[in-house]
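Recap slide: AD domain-containing protein, sequence and predicted structure.
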Amino acid sequence: MNSDRRQGSGAGGFQQRPQNQGGPQGGPIVPGPSSIDWVLGLKVKIMTTLDDIIVGRVYAYCTLTNTLTVLEDETPLGAKPDVKNYRILKVSFIKDIAVLEKMPEDTTEDEAAPANSRGGGPFLKATPHIGPVNINSAVQKINSAARAAGQILAQRGVGVTKDAQDLFDALAKTLPVRWLDKSILVLEEVKINPPYTPEACSAKSDSPALARVKKVVDGERRRLETLKQARSETSEERKGG
């Protein structure tokens, strides 16, 4: 299959239309990022700067953000057949783009003109059409995803050792815990300070949870140490053949 190929020029975007297309009125296209408008609606094969290959139909090109939106050919794994996957790429992230099909022969000069030179541009025939978007629903999903990401981030200690994080993760399975600087706060009462031993646990003198947490910490440390030794022995056996 014949294809027209263009290489990205970094932040400057794509500057040239295939010779057999030309610009409006048959003249050369005006240099600039908007010159990629001519591929809207066409099937392309894109290679990113990370050498990833993306095949799909160009759905949109934004001159403000210098991004290209591609409707991928493949349905996401596990998704319903009618679910579409869109990829938004910075043009500076594109190393190479090959057009896998020619512009329809019945395309008029007006339809081939850049979108910023007339009303709608190639978007007039862009498919599939975008339906109404429920903004409130979208905002709720974004906020929910942000909260989930924040909760995951809050579970990761900053500047702590792997052993400390492993102990935190083990305690989190059965007790409410959170990081307090480099200390682990359990039940909002008991603080486990470095080096995270039973002796490093502290709380108010009348806290009934202190003895329980010390016992759990001791048990988890023993279990984690056993796992570490088992992994080390397995690694040594593999090295020895």
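Confidence is low (pLDDT under 50) at residues 9-34, 109-127.
DSSP finds four helices and ten strands in the chain.
(End of recap.)
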